[in-house]
Design a protein that fits this description.
Layout (H helix, E strand, L loop, with lengths): L11 H12 L3 E7 L2 E7 L3 E8 L6 E6 L11 H11 L15 H6 L3 H14 L1 H12 L4 H18 L8 H24 L3 H17 L8 H19 L2 H15 L4 H9 L10 H16 L5 H17 L4 H9 L5 H13 L3 H14 L4 H17 L3 H14 L6 H9 L2 H12 L8 H7 L3 H11 L2 H11 L4 H18 L3 H14 L5 H15 L4 H9 L3
Antiparallel strand pairs: 1-2, 2-3, 3-4
Helix pairs in contact: 1-2, 4-5, 6-7, 6-8, 7-8, 7-9, 8-9, 12-13, 13-14, 15-16, 16-17, 17-18, 18-19, 23-24, 24-25, 24-26, 25-26, 25-27
Length: 549
């Protein structure tokens, strides 16, 4: 291909990947309409690319690709591939499924010697094609080809990292996509040939390359790569026999300790993977080792709970009796999640007495953990409702409302529904003075239509945010008092303001004052006062003028 006039638009590694895409025939449905070119490019997904040229077709006026890398206008490999196709004369390619020219039909037009010559030429220039031919012809993959995987991945990493070996935010997602594409280009052929262990070696090598790379992964590219690898492992395990699965599990467990970020992904995958039952004993042994490590680390409670749950699931799968499972669970009864599982089991079976006993016990064990105790209380409320235990429900509702901060009125309204109007009036007053209802005072006053009390509370706190929220309810009856709250707030806010943004915010609130009776006069008076009081605040004076004051 002659030197491409648009090559300098791209970082070298992006341009080279675009050239590879073009040579691999990934540019599809290329169409030219006057000065506009559109095409589909096959990558990890099929992406749409459009390019607009000037009349002389020697310059680009606009371009777009809907891939994650190119959506913000960054020149991507898909755009590079299309520009290569434009220069290479592929403006009118034969569609894959149109006019009868399928790939199969085109191959059928070749003689045996032509096909042989083409295949040899392609294989000599492409290690992947050589790899497929080797697998198809001999069902063997030489070690040299596996070494080539490592060399290719190392080269890919070097092409996208800086001189310190770091990949920055702008390239990290593209890098992870490239790893996925490298693996997905080769994995189907290995699986088709029944080479489960070679397929696993490729996927593990790709996974390890990603998780060990120093990069800014703020965009979550590593999670995408890990997800693809885990899907690949599941396909491999489905195909692998028991001995191969044992070898794969051994590989996971041996390398587990050497991983850092990778441990998180393995924990997510390892215990729910499609293992055969015969793997159970080895998996339980590994789980036990991980559990013992967690027991030594006081900060690993959540992971410990997860591991114990996984172990019991495997005990059940392997036919261990309920008694054995219970005995194992009993060792970790002190852990909240283990008791939560027992509580859920009791509730599902309708054993309310056992559920309540466990909740009472949990409340005592975890008494220093308010979040958990609140959760236990709401579960007890639920059980008392379902069992029509009115006396216990009433007590538990009161205990819960006065012990824990309320983020809504759900349990308040449950309590109200159980009381007479006279009882509720007294209870409501008590709730309004409770610290646990502090964030819900306004909501409760609105719910109860206590607008005078609502207005008084807003006045007491000079709460401009509450006033703006409930203005529609208060303005008609308490217009002058609302206006007074605005004035008090504005005087204080302008006194504290010290930059243009703060002045602008205060003046936006000042505009609202003009909507009240006599509000225009009041607003003008405040503006005049500020001009006199703060004559050196040039930004404030400018913002006042812009707002029409």
């Amino acid at each position: 291909m002659a030197t491409n006039p648009w090559k300098n638009m791209f970082p070298p590694h992006i341009w080279q990947r675009g050239v590879d895409y073009y040579r691999d025939g990934r540019v599809l449905d290329l169409h030219c309409r006057n000065s506009e070119v559109t095409a589909q490019v096959e990558g990890s997904e099929t992406y749409t690319v459009s390019v607009t040229f000037n009349k002389a077709r020697d310059g680009i006026t606009d371009y777009f690709c809907d891939c994650p890398y190119g959506e913000d206008g960054t020149p991507c490999k898909h755009l590079a591939a299309v520009l290569c196709a434009v220069q290479g004369g592929a403006q009118n390619p034969i569609p894959k499924e149109k006019n009868g020219y399928t790939v199969e039909a085109l191959v059928g037009l070749l003689s045996e010697s032509q096909m042989r010559s083409l295949l040899i030429r392609f294989a000599e220039g492409d290690s992947h094609i050589r790899e497929v031919i080797q697998l198809t012809a001999t069902n063997e993959l030489p070690q040299t080809q596996k070494d080539q995987w490592e060399a290719d991945l190392e080269e890919l990493t070097d092409s996208m990292s800086d001189r310190h070996g770091f990949i920055d935010y702008e390239d990290a997602s593209e890098y992870c996509d490239a790893l996925v594409e490298y693996m997905n280009d080769r994995l189907p052929d290995l699986l088709f040939a029944g080479k489960a262990m070679d397929a696993f070696q490729l996927s593990w090598l790709t996974f390890r390359t990603g998780v060990e790379q120093d990069m800014d992964d703020s965009d979550g590219g590593m999670s995408v790569l890990a997800s693809f690898c885990m899907d690949a492992w599941s396909q491999i395990l489905e195909q692998a026999d028991l001995e191969e699965q044992r070898e794969i599990l051994h590989w996971f467990t041996v390398h587990y300790a050497s991983l850092d970020l990778g441990k998180m992904f393995l924990d997510e995958y390892l215990y729910d993977a499609p293992w055969k039952d015969g793997i159970g004993p080895e998996l339980l042994s590994f789980l036990d080792r991980q559990i013992q490590e967690c027991l030594k680390n006081e900060n690993s409670q959540y992971r410990l709970e997860d591991l114990i749950v996984h172990r019991v699931k495997w005990m059940e799968r392997l036919g261990k009796s309920e008694e054995e499972q219970e005995q194992y669970f009993a060792q970790y009864h002190y852990l909240p999640r283990i008791r939560e599982i027992k509580i859920t089991q009791a509730k599902q079976s309708g054993d309310w007495a056992t559920a309540l006993a466990l909740l009472e016990e949990s409340r005592e064990i975890d008494k220093d953990l308010p979040g958990l105790v609140a959760k236990y209380s709401t579960q007890m409320i639920e059980i008392y409702e379902r069992t029509d235990n009115r006396e216990s429900l009433l007590k538990e509702l009161r205990d819960y409302l006065y012990a824990f901060r309320q983020d809504d009125l759900v349990y308040v309204l449950k309590l109200k529904a159980m009381l007479t109007p006279e009882e509720w009036t007294a209870e409501r007053d008590r709730l309004l003075n409770s610290t646990t209802m502090r964030s819900q005072v306004y909501s409760l006053l609105e719910q109860e239509q206590l607008y005078e009390a609502l207005m008084q509370t807003i006045e007491k706190n000079t709460d401009i945010h509450a006033l703006e929220r409930y203005e529609r309810l208060l303005k008609k009856s308490y217009g002058q008092r609302c206006l007074n709250v605005y004035v008090t707030h504005l005087q204080d806010a302008m006194g504290r303001a010290n930059n243009r943004k703060a002045y602008w915010s205060v003046i936006q609130t000042l505009k609202k004052v003009r909507k009240y009776p006599d509000g225009k006069v009041v607003a003008k008076g405040l503006a005049d006062c500020w001009r006199t009081k703060y004559p050196r605040r040039t930004s404030m004076l400018d913002e006042l003028s812009k707002a029409g004051f």
